[in-house]
Amino acid sequence: MVRRAQSMAKTHGSNSNTIKKRERSRFTGYLGEELVAQFISGLTRANCKDYDFIRWKGSPHSYSIDVKTKERGVLPSDKWSVHIGEYGSHQQCDTYVFAQVNETEQGWRGWVIGWMDKKEYWDTALKVKKGDVVEGDDWPEYADGRKMYFRDLHHY
Q: Which pTM was predicted?
């Protein structure tokens, strides 16, 4: 998984639709996708600008998934949040799947945190502006967007 994510990050062009515009950010994004591909059955990789996978491609029940990955130095907790920049509202995907990856002394660890359909996310997530510090959080927001806590996502 790690080698595939590294290879894809090196061949991937610049993505203006990511909050952190670095090769490491591209790598962790691909690592999250690799994790999701191992965790969820029936996925076909799409890697287009709007989504990463199609689940059950060709069936009447197919839907598109965009994986959102965050690198952290701490274990997952209900008090942590996911954030999608306002630019993400244009993406033509059906569902978001959220992943977290951590680099440790032993290598990379990862978790599939949860999921939410795109419409539900945009209808219910907290709207934040760049620089906002939401009560109870210690960090200012990186960009305008929508924020939701792990505890509010749907879990597998």
A: 0.90
